[in-house]
Specification:
CATH superfamily: Hexapeptide repeat proteins
Largest sheet: 4 strands, mixed
Helix content: under 10%
Strand order of the largest sheet: 5-8-10-11
Order of helices and strands: EEEEEEEEEEE
Distance between the termini: 16 Å
Number of helices: 0
Number of domains: 1
Oligomer: single chain
CATH topology: UDP N-Acetylglucosamine Acyltransferase, domain 1
CATH architecture: 3 Solenoid
Radius of gyration: 13 Å
Low-confidence stretches: none
Shape: elongated
Strand content: 35-45%
């Protein structure tokens, strides 16, 4: 279940200033079954969201989310296990 206005960001640039113009970095985002992503959440490249997890509205997910876990905040942290 995916709410309105979410951002799935799979691309970016290297951190080193002299390398930024050279190329774009990209990694896939993996979302397993029965995941609920709240309104305006952002999920960045390379993140894996486990089965039955919940991402709260407005969360910024920069790390993997364990299965059956509620994450919230900026950056998103584990609030509780479901």
């Amino acid at each position: 279940m995916i709410a309105h206005k979410i951002n799935l960001v799979t691309a970016g640039h290297p951190l080193e200033p002299d390398r930024r113009p050279e190329y774009i970095t990209a990694k896939p985002i993996t979302i397993e079954s029965n995941v609920w992503i709240g309104t305006a959440a952002t999920i960045v490249s390379g993140v894996h969201i486990g089965k039955d997890a919940v991402v709260a509205a407005d969360a910024v997910v920069a790390r993997d989310v364990l299965p059956a876990t509620l994450v919230a905040g900026v950056p998103a942290i584990t609030v509780r296990y479901l």
